[in-house]
Write a structure and sequence with these properties.
With 469 residues, the chain is an all-alpha fold. The chain has one domain: Growth Hormone, Chain: A, CATH 1.20.1250.20. The protein contains 20 helices and no strands. The chain is globular and about 70 Å long. It starts with a helix and ends with a helix.
C-alpha cells in the first residue's frame, strides 16, 4: 500500500528530446501518408476534366441565361438555348459508339474540347436565337464527348481494383472545378463577352494537360478491348455510388459509362411493372420538374428575388463546396437507413426549398433572404438524392447494373431536356412563379411514386439492432 502511494506521488519522468523527435517523425510520416494517398489515384490530366467542370457546370449555367436575357430581352429564349445545350449532352451514346466500335477515343476526346472552345468563342459575337441555340447544342455535344471518353481512359488502362477510386477522384475534380467556375462566373457577370472568351481560352491548357498526362498506351491507336462490355461486366456500381458528382445540366448525364444510355434504353419495356420501373418514373418526374428552374435560376434570382448574380454564384459555389463533403454522409445514411428512405428524405428537402421560393410571391416576407435560404436547401440535399438514386439503381435493377445505369442516366437526361423546353412558354405566359410551381409538382409526383422502394436485401441498421435487442 505504501509502495503504491509512493509510486503515485512520484512525478512522471520527463520525455526526452529523442522521444519527442521520434514522435514528431511518426506524426509527420502519418500526415505525409494521408496526403500522399490520393496521388495513387490522381493523374495530371484530371485537371483538364476539372477545367471542363468549371466551364460546363460552373460558368455556362450562370453566364448564358444572364447574357441571353440582357441582350435579347426574351425570357423564353433562355429555355431554348439552354435546352440546346442539354440536347447536345444527349449525344453521349454516339460518342460511346465511336469510341467502342471505331476506336476513335482520342479524336472524340480532343475533338470535344475543340468544338466546345469554338462554340464558346463564337457565342458572344453571334446574337440571335438560332445561332445561340446551335452553338449551345455544339457546346453540349463537345462537353458530352470529353466526359464520355474520360472515364474510358481509366477503365481501359488502369487495373480493375483501381477503377472505383480513380473514377471517384475524376468526378471529384469535376466537382471542384464546378466550385471554381461558379466563383469565376460571379466575377464575369459584369462582362459576359469576356467571361465566355476567357472560358474558351482556358481550354487551351486543358488540351495541353490532357495530351501531357494521358497514359502512354492511350496515345496509340491499337485499341482492342470492347470497353463498354468490360465496364458492364466488371464495374461495381454500388461502390461508385459513394463518390461525389456535381449536379449538372442534362439531368446528371455526365456520370459513369455514359455510352450505355442507348443500350440501357432498349430494356425499358422490361422494367415497366417492377420497383425499378417505378423508381425510374420517380426520377424522371423530379428531373422534369426542376429542369426549368435550373435553366433560369440566375435570371430568376436576380429579377424575381432581387439577388445579385454575383451573390447567387458565390452562394452556389459555397454550397457546392460544402456538398462535396455530404456525399460521404449520404453514403453512410443510405447504408444505415436504406437508400429508399434517404431518396425520399432528399426529395422532401427539395420540396421545402422550392416551397420557400414560391411562398415569397404570396406573403410579405423578405424575398432575398428567403430565396437564398430556399436555394441553399435545394442544392445542399443534392448529394443525398444523387447517392441514394445511384444506389437504388444498382440494387433494384432486374438485369445488369451497367444497362440499368444507362437507363437511369437516360431517364434523367431526357426529362431535363423536355422540362427545359417547356419552361420557356411557362415563364413567358405565367412568370417566375411557374418555375418553383413546376418543380413542386414534379417533386411531389416523384415522392409519391418513390414510396416503398426500400430494397429488401438492405435492412436498416436500426431495425437490425432492435431485433437483436
Amino acid at each position: 500500500m505504501i509502495e503504491s502511494i509512493t509510486q503515485q506521488a512520484e512525478p512522471e519522468k520527463p520525455i526526452s528530446s529523442m522521444d519527442r523527435r521520434q514522435r514528431a517523425r511518426a506524426h509527420l510520416a502519418k500526415v505525409l501518408h494521408i496526403l500522399n494517398e490520393p496521388r495513387r489515384w490522381i493523374s495530371i490530366w484530371f485537371l483538364s476534366y476539372a477545367i471542363l467542370g468549371a466551364i460546363s457546370s460552373g460558368i455556362l449555367p450562370i453566364l448564358l441565361p444572364l447574357m441571353i436575357v440582357a441582350i435579347s430581352h426574351h425570357l423564353s429564349w433562355v429555355a431554348y438555348v439552354m435546352g440546346g445545350f442539354n440536347l447536345g449532352l444527349l449525344s453521349s451514346p454516339l460518342w460511346g459508339f465511336l469510341a467502342d466500335n471505331k476506336q476513335w477515343h482520342l479524336p472524340v476526346f480532343f475533338g470535344g474540347f475543340i468544338v466546345l472552345m469554338l462554340a464558346l468563342g463564337f457565342l458572344p459575337f453571334l446574337p440571335g436565337l438560332l445561332p445561340w441555340s446551335l452553338l449551345s447544342l455544339a457546346a453540349g455535344a463537345g462537353t458530352s464527348a470529353v466526359a464520355t471518353v474520360a472515364s474510358l481512359f481509366i477503365v481501359e488502362f488502369d487495373p480493375k481494383n483501381h477503377w472505383e477510386a480513380r473514377l471517384g477522384w475524376l468526378q471529384t475534380f469535376n466537382g471542384a472545378g464546378q466550385v471554381g467556375g461558379l466563383l469565376l462566373a460571379g466575377i464575369f457577370t459584369a462582362n459576359f463577352k469576356w467571361g465566355l472568351i476567357c472560358s474558351a481560352l482556358a481550354l487551351f491548357p486543358a488540351i495541353w494537360l490532357a495530351a501531357k498526362g494521358l497514359p502512354s498506351a492511350a496515345k496509340r491507336v491499337d485499341w482492342t478491348a470492347e470497353i463498354g462490355q468490360q465496364m458492364r461486366r466488371d464495374l461495381d456500381w454500388r461502390l461508385l455510388a459513394n463518390f461525389g458528382r456535381p449536379e449538372l445540366l442534362g439531368g446528371g448525364l455526365l456520370r459513369f459509362s455514359h455510352h450505355l444510355s442507348l443500350r440501357g434504353g432498349k430494356r425499358f419495356m422490361d422494367v415497366l411493372h417492377t420497383r425499378f420501373g417505378r423508381f425510374l418514373f420517380s426520377w424522371f418526374a423530379v428531373a422534369f420538374g426542376v429542369a426549368a428552374f435550373f435553366a433560369y435560376f440566375p435570371v430568376a434570382m436576380q429579377k424575381a428575388y432581387s439577388v445579385a448574380p454575383t451573390l447567387t454564384s458565390s452562394v452556389y459555389a459555397i454550397t457546392a463546396a460544402f456538398a462535396l463533403i455530404l456525399y460521404s454522409v449520404g453514403g453512410q445514411l443510405s447504408g444505415k437507413y436504406g437508400a429508399g428512405r434517404v431518396y425520399r428524405w432528399s426529395l422532401l428537402g427539395r420540396l421545402i426549398g422550392f416551397s420557400l421560393l414560391l411562398l415569397v410571391f404570396f406573403t410579405p416576407i423578405p424575398k432575398t433572404f428567403v430565396a437564398l435560404l430556399g436555394f441553399v436547401v435545394i442544392m445542399a440535399v443534392w448529394p443525398l438524392q444523387s447517392i441514394s438514386g445511384t444506389t437504388l439503381t444498382a440494387r433494384l435493377t432486374p438485369f445488369s447494373q451497367g444497362a440499368a445505369m444507362g437507363l437511369f442516366n437516360a431517364s434523367g437526361a431526357v426529362a431535363t431536356v423536355l422540362g427545359t423546353f417547356l419552361g420557356g412558354p411557362l415563364v413567358q405566359f405565367i412568370g417566375y412563379p411557374a418555375l418553383s410551381a413546376m418543380a413542386i409538382v414534379g417533386i411531389l409526383l416523384g415522392w409519391l411514386t418513390g414510396h416503398g422502394l426500400q430494397a429488401e436485401n438492405v435492412q436498416p441498421e436500426l431495425k437490425t439492432s432492435a431485433n437483436k435487442a
